Automatic annotation (TrEMBL):
It comes from the Bacteria. The chain crosses the membrane at residues 9-29, 49-71, 83-109, 129-146. It comes from Butyribacter intestini. The keyword Transmembrane helix applies. Keywords: Membrane, Transmembrane, Transmembrane helix. Pfam families: DUF2798. This is DUF2798 domain-containing protein.
Amino acid sequence: MQRTKLQNFIFTAIMAFIMVYGMVCYNIAIDKGGMSNEIFLIAFHEMPIMWPVAVILEMFVFERLAIKLAFRFVTPGKESEFMVTVAISSMIVALMCPTMSLIATVLFAHPGSEVVAVWLQKYVLNFPMAFFWQTFIAGPLVRNVFKIFESDKNVNREEQAA
């Protein structure tokens, strides 16, 4: 869907924001014992750290690897675009979730000598949420927003050509 490096960066930045914000809200709700309206505001305190980390990891560490892993399960052109998208998204979650959970554990959970145990617990709790959040909320939302901007660009190009 993204054709240029700039489009890829914008897509990644938006997707990372939606994913990180959702996951930060989820983790704060777990820590506080339940969801409340204040969590939506509290989550913004972690965003300046976790959002850039997610963008950097996605773009420079995991994107190519996730695509390579996904293409072991699906073949572009042979399978539907939907299946290719789901495979890539799933691999990104599979790579990003343990890494982001470890970073959040070290920075925010203050695990002391229990870092491995706390990280594993966070990872096990985060993975299902990250997978479903990506598959059913963040992924479709960001892709549809991108399609709207793409169709607006195409309309503008057609108007300029006429």
